[in-house]
Amino acid sequence: MSKLLISVVGPTAIGKTKLAISLAQHYRTEILSADSRQFFKEMTIGTAVPSLAELSAAKHHFIQHKSIKDAFSVGDFERDGIALLNHLFKNQSIVIMVGGSGLYVDAITKGMDKFPIVDSEIREQLNQEFKESGIVSLQKKLEQLDGSYYKTVDLNNPHRLIRALEICLGTGKPYTSFLNKPKKARDFKTITVGLKADRPHIYDAINRRVDTMMALGLEEEAKALFPNRALNALQTVGYKELFTYFDGIWSYETAVSEIKKNTRRFAKRQLTWFKKNEQILWVDSNTNREHQLESIAEHVNQAVAFS
Questions:
Q1: Residue 144 CB coordination number (10 Å)
Q2: What is the mean pLDDT of residues 269-287?
Q3: Phi first, then psi: what are they for 7, rounded to 5°?
Q4: Annotated region Interaction with substrate tRNA: where (predicted)?
Q5: Which residue in 230, 225, 265 sits closest to 242, CA to CA?
Q6: Residue 12: what are its φ and ψ, rounded to 5°?
């Protein structure tokens, strides 16, 4: 029997978790989370971790299984995620994956580019540079060492900048010279389902979600994490804006407004990433669940043989 991974993607706040749970219940299977923000147990409200009711509705993997102090790269996720799928596919013909982190989704469905091992001191030096001189220093250095990657990377993501720079500095070659090499084929098929909505609907959902997060106590959660603000896991929307508020640079109202604005920008980048994949089955998020499942089932039936 063919093994099939149904990957649910789309911008933040559009309803991916709920659709994934419905699919897991329909096919009596389990869910692999590919949301890199939800890996860390100290971050709950600001990452929109599934509720206890949602977690009990279908078995989830890779939800809050790491600490913000743990090193857990996309390469680690690929290794552990494939190992989990190999285990699940022993008893399941279909597994669900859900997440809006495009790089992490691709790590499972397509495989990661392989990079040489470089001296760990280089990363430590870059982390120190970021702490002392800020993100602009990293941006300028990357522009000098790999102008091509500088034009495509999220320049506000220090983790991505540091990763590229450590390869450039450790090998003497541009980061992009290691990209897009042939990768090992997966032994399972993938159907990627993308949730879509018009932009005003997405932006309205984001604004409402941020308001809900603040009401649930995101400020207190961020305040508890503030002493660890330099960690890579905390360089993310929802926390870094509140850290600036705690520093006295922004007002509370400005911080909340910036969270909404930066989350909208993040959603735009997510859509840009996923729209590059011409094989995605796009499903309207406003369509009733039964119709969504019927549409997905048609593609599943074409991709996997049922006994």
A1: 10
A2: 94
A3: -105, 120
A4: 35-38
A5: 225
A6: -60, 145
For residue 191, list its beta bridge partners: 6
Say if residue 307's pLDDT is above 50. no
221 within 8 A of 45, measured Cβ to Cβ: yes
Task: Determine if residue 13 is labeled as part of a ligand binding site.
Answer: yes
Residue 212 pLDDT > 50 = yes
Specify the pLDDT at position 11: 97
Which run of H or E residues covers position 179?
Answer: none
Q: Is 31 annotated as a binding residue?
A: no
Q: Name the fold adopted by 120-178.
A: Histone, subunit A (1.10.20)
Each residue of 78-114: pLDDT tens digit?
Answer: 999 999 999 999 999 999 999 999 999 999 999 988 8
Does the 4-112+183-303 domain belong in CATH 3.40.50.300? Answer: yes
53: its two tokens: 């009711």
Strands 31-33 and 281-284: unpaired
Tell me if 197 is assigned to a ligand binding site.
Answer: no
The shares of helix, strand and coil residues in the chain, as percent rounded to the nearest 5, are 55, 10, 35
- The domain segmentation of the chain, as residue ranges, is 4-112+183-303, 120-178
C-alpha to C-alpha distance for 15 and 237, rounded to whole angstroms: 19
Task: Determine whether the annotation assigns residue 111 to a binding site.
Answer: no
Tens digit of pLDDT for each residue in 142-158?
A: 999 999 999 989 898 88
| Residue 107 labeled ligand binder | no
**Confidence class of residue 115 from pLDDT cuts 50, 70 and 90?**
confident
pTM, whole model, 2 decimals? 0.84
Sign, Cα dihedral of 190, 39, 163, 70: negative
Tell me if 71 is assigned to a ligand binding site.
no
Confidence (pLDDT) at 46: 97
C-alpha of 190 from chain center: 18
Ligand-binding annotation for 11, yes or no, is yes
Most confident of 103-112, 159-168, 256-265: 256-265
Is 16 annotated as contributing to ligand binding?
yes
Q: Report the alpha-carbon distance of residue 66 to residue 40 in Å, rounded.
A: 5
CA 206 to chain centre: 16
